[in-house]
Amino acid sequence: MTDWTSQDLIHKLADALVGDLPELLDTVRVQLAEESPDYAMFLVAERQEVAQAAEITVRRLVAGADEHAATAVELAPVQAALFEAIGRLQFREGHDLTRLLSAYHIGARAAWRHISTTAVDLGLPAAMIAELAETLFSFIDQLSSASVRGYVREQSEAAAERERLREELAVLLLSDRCDAASLAAAAERARWPLPVSVAVILIDPGDEVSRFVVARIDSGILMVRWHDWIAAICPEPKPLPRERLIGLLHGARAVIAPPVALDQVPASARIAAAAAALRRDGLLAEDVVFVEDHLDAVIVHRDPRSLEALRTRVLAPLDAVPAAARDRLTETLAAWLRHMGDRRAVAADLHVHPQTVRYRMTRLRDLFGEALDDPEARIRLTLALAWGPPASSQP
User: What's the CATH code, domain 7-157?
Assistant: First the structure.
């Protein structure tokens, strides 16, 4: 028997395997037809090119096994690029990667049956047959790895591009230059079906937990950095109940605007930003702020200079009172307005005796006179005091 390392035997094995390639390709095509008919059709359409590539590969595999080094048979750069491109194509065409990997393994099993049968017929030693097996399946693993790498890279690049287009769409929705034609075009590029209405949610950009929670509410949410906030634009096909939102966003420090038509998104976002600023300044206490519950506060605080001018005017009777007493009287007046004159409720709110409330209200009546009984004056006082003390009273 010729020694199994001899060049004569190696050439004889390679020639025999190459001669069997037409039969091998037919076997692989039949097996693929059951699970992946499109791959089987590819073998028919590109038979000549596939046969040429298979011959080169077979001769490399046999040579590698002769050298006792399975790792020596590695994909050439051009082969690695080819199989990476195949993986990319799988993703672009929407195919499951497992189908491609399964096709590789079907081919590998069929190839091994031919290789092992031929090797035994030629009288190759068991050690060389084992080397052949290791070399073949190592090579198939490299093919699979290259295609997986291409698939994952294409997936990652596609996701990055999709995210970029969605951010562009979000910026457009939040801008005042959002005409219907440009919006429709941007939505089509981003593959984002235009809803009838959306709700804007603002979250603190430093709050990663909130960002994650909001993104999990709906895969269709657009998120983008907008001024001092992360703006999430949520499609509203089925608005979530308030209790559900509060549960999902508990501790998330989110500000939720009511659903609006698409052309009203910029205005809605600005109102939400005003509410977020109030919450940041401590004037709104809830973790999850629903803008519609605080429109009065937003309206009053949209122009701080006007609010301070109102406070200066309506609280002028307190100017002559010493600072410490002025703060106590201001606090009592705000609670009295809030509780509509209920002395016991005011006392409980301020944690003082009702008699203390009586004394302070007597002092306030001395200062404000009939204004405390005038409905319009009381409205102005409520606007001035309902959301915190005036700037002059703050520490």
Answer: 1.10.490.10
